[in-house]
Amino acid sequence: MGLVVQKYGGSSVADAEGIKRVAKRIVDTKKDGHQVVVVVSAMGDTTDELIDLAEQVSPIPAGREFDMLLTAGERISMALLAMAIKNLGHEAQSFTGSQAGVITDSVHNKARIIDVTPGRIRTALDEGNIAIVAGFQGVSQDKKDITTLGRGGSDTTAVALAAALDAEVCEIYTDVDGVFTADPRVVKKAKKIDWISFEDMLELAASGSKVLLHRCVEYARRYNIPIHVRSSFSGLQGTWVSNEPQGAQKVEQAIISGVAHDTSEAKITVVGVPDKPGEAAAIFRAVADAEINIDMIVQNVSAASTGLTDISFTLPKAEGRKAIDELEKAKSAIGFDSLRYDDQIGKISLVGAGMKTNPGVTADFFKALSDAGVNIELISTSEIRISVVTRADDVNEAVRAVHTAFGLDSDSDEAVVYGGTGR
Amino acid sequence: MGLVVQKYGGSSVADAEGIKRVAKRIVDTKKDGHQVVVVVSAMGDTTDELIDLAEQVSPIPAGREFDMLLTAGERISMALLAMAIKNLGHEAQSFTGSQAGVITDSVHNKARIIDVTPGRIRTALDEGNIAIVAGFQGVSQDKKDITTLGRGGSDTTAVALAAALDAEVCEIYTDVDGVFTADPRVVKKAKKIDWISFEDMLELAASGSKVLLHRCVEYARRYNIPIHVRSSFSGLQGTWVSNEPQGAQKVEQAIISGVAHDTSEAKITVVGVPDKPGEAAAIFRAVADAEINIDMIVQNVSAASTGLTDISFTLPKAEGRKAIDELEKAKSAIGFDSLRYDDQIGKISLVGAGMKTNPGVTADFFKALSDAGVNIELISTSEIRISVVTRADDVNEAVRAVHTAFGLDSDSDEAVVYGGTGR
Predict the structure, then answer these.
(1) Is residue A342 part of a domain?
(2) Under which EC number(s) is this enzyme classified (chains A, B) (predicted)?
(3) Is residue B242 classed as helix, strand or coil in its secondary structure?
(4) What is the reported pTM?
(5) Which positions ≥6 away from A247 have C-beta within 8 Å?
């Protein structure tokens, strides 16, 4: 019996009852003979309440002090969780990110973990304790300031600790039963996936699946830490994410893992770009300098008559205004005609390693969309993913059509509650 | 212009408005040319809310995890205060007790400061920052665990930091205008004291005055740090506590500093104690072993006929049950007849260095009580204090009578709001 890292999101510890329920689950794991390290997020709405307070004292709260403030949230939940476990007759100690050895860079509000030195956690485990660690936070290597890891940070904390402690699994407890073949709010017949490879999970996360964030899966793949995504309410087996299926997960690998969609992006088209070397570089340099993350990029062949081409790309809606501003500033230097901005788009992605060896997948995908009357505006592919941009209004219908066409529908059509994992 | 340490209690930072008001006061001090270190308590009711949560998950929250939980309170207030200061255009950084170098022993929930190593605070000040430090908390020397200092701990943090940083003054901001000659809720004509010696302040604190706790004053006296107790609302000069009055505080020292009272104690009388060596020691050993703090002790001469005597002592009401239990257990070993427990008592104390050279004070004190028809049950004295125990019902009347008899009444009789300083 090895070491297990468990992560519980804010909705699992939203109140005293939730904390007691989670404590019992942790103690059960300990009773099974495991050493247990628990990573916990702030209780329910705590983070929102702290942000609200911050905005009341300062219109632009950010940086070092904002991190100091937000980390109070996990401090509360982790101490309460340790108390609840002790109340069940087991030893527990809570540790801040800093105490747990989560070392980060100095980028406040979205720091990256650069090292984990869990000496105190090891000692606590060796002394028979369950170790409770604050998710989402660390301490900066240079200044020893408190940092936070940004959205999904607690999942990353859990995986990083699992890697540093050589855990046998990192269990991510959430309010859904696992990773599904599509968003169950859109596709009633979506099925829970029993096992999925790191690669497919990375593509799903990059394509709009919210259950696990890309960064966390990437970390798990790098250190080969199996992730088990499961519900803190049901106790059922969830979805295993790993290199190779083990034991009960040993199912024949599906050609297609799932269908993801994303309606949080907008599309910018740069119209009338001179078709000569360096033009695309100039456009994306202007956008990158503003620290805007772009997703898909498509350039058509230029019209022979004009020597001009159009370049389209997608990016988070929240960054649309800034990107337009930056491009307008660089307009004369780059030399394009105009910009078109469109935030009524959606993206549908089909993900599966089986694509590599099944050349018919792309054709079947387009046929399914065509049969559903969905018009395609942009296409982009990777080795194991194909994504299209459509009108936002068409997204749900498109996802359902593709899900059915690839035989992913379950026989049952019972509704599944689906939500995010918090931070 | 030197370094000033300011401490703000929970009532001063109870909400966003309070935090902004305090931020402005801090910035004004900085503008006057001072380096400023601020010690802050948790906002208003935060601590009570955290305790309430703890009790929901565990009936006996205490120790290491309880300290971890409670320290979230100052983390929130200090980060918000730093943000509010930055919003006014000044640089500020917040520090936990641990970051500020507040090193304590390992007694959770009531740790004692054993060293202060404020290297990071010095650096922050040298870089032009206002340093905000979490009150009430530190880190244990041996295990590096988070500790709390117990009631009044933020005041002690402030004085300890002032000593370690060689501050010119430690300002304790609270919701009253200073230290008064008596509790203004009882004596409407109580006067604010402009200056009081450490010694007299120590006696007042030990006798029931709540404005400053004994431990904090003791620390200030040991390191000779002047304390200025003042209102965070009015901005008026408050009460200076120091070795010698300075400048505007140079008033002729009063014979009597003030009248304190305390109705939080109970009296235990051990009846029929054999009058032989070692009996008192056995009684107080039994009580001390249970870690009960006793206050006054009185033993009368024994009746010649029986060779038996009575020993009375006072102690906090909250510890009365435990003391009775311990004494009953030791009854046969000690050999007394019975125990009497009385929690309807009050204590009135007259404090002033002038007593040493004014032998009439004691007589005047008893006459004032007698004229007011107050019966005295126990008497205890120090060089600069005289205390009596009376019926609890007589306390207010006794305090007023003594206050008037020693000429402490102000001419004004406007009501003054009086309260505690929080923790």
Answers:
(1) no
(2) 2.7.2.4
(3) strand
(4) 0.84
(5) none
Specify the 3-state DSSP secondary structure of B4: strand
Residue B68 contacts A, CB cutoff 8 Å? yes
- Based on the structure, what is the number of domains in chain A? 1
Cα B27 to Cα B5, B32, B86: the distances in Å are 13, 9, 10
A86/B58 Cβ within 8 A:
yes
What is the distance of C-alpha B254 from the center of its chain? 22
For residues B326 and B317, give the distance between their C-alpha atoms in angstroms, rounded to a whole number.
15
Q: How far apart are CA A326 and CA A284, in angstroms?
A: 10
Please list, in sequence order, all residues whose beta carbon lies within 8 angstroms of the beta carbon of residue A400, skipping any fewer than 6 positions away. A182, A186, A187, A372
Q: Does A376 touch chain B (CB under 8 A)?
A: no
A269 vs B: CB within 8 A: no
Range of the domain at A34: 3-175
CB spacing of B19 vs A57 below 8 angstroms: yes
Q: Under an 8 A CB cutoff, do B57 and A93 touch?
A: no
Which tokens go with A253?
């690998």
Is B379 a domain residue?
no
- Rounded CA-CA distance A45/B20 in Å is 24
| Residue of chain B whose alpha carbon sits nearest to that of A52 | B16
Residue A191 lies in a domain: no
With CB atoms and an 8 Å threshold, state whether A68 touches B75.
yes
Residue B235 — left, alpha, or beta (φ > 0 → left; ψ -120 to 50 → alpha)? left
Chain B interface mutation, best of A76, A130, A137, highest count of B Cβ atoms under 10 Å: A76
Write the ipTM.
0.80
Q: How far is CA A179 from CA A175, A183, A197, A205, in A?
A: 11, 9, 12, 10
* Three-state DSSP state, B150: coil
Structure tokens at A267: 């599309």
Of B23, B79, B120, the CB nearest to A69: B79
Q: Summarize pLDDT for A97-142 with one digit per residue, the tens.
A: 999 999 999 999 989 999 999 999 999 999 999 999 999 999 999 9
Q: What is the CATH number of the domain that holds B9?
A: 3.40.1160.10
| φ, ψ (nearest 5 deg) of residue B418 | -130, 135
| B residues 84..143 contacting A (CB < 8 A) | 84, 86-87, 92-94, 99, 120
In angstroms, the separation between the Cα of residue A231 and the nearest Cα of chain B is 22
Instruction: Confirm whether B208 is domain-assigned.
Output: no
pLDDT in tens, A292-343: 888 888 877 666 678 888 889 999 998 999 999 999 999 988 889 999 999 9
Percentages of chain A per state (helix, strand, coil), in multiples of 5: 35, 25, 40
Which candidate, B267, B268, B269, B271, places its Cα nearest to that of B336?
B271
Gap from A54 CA to chain B (nearest CA, Å): 6
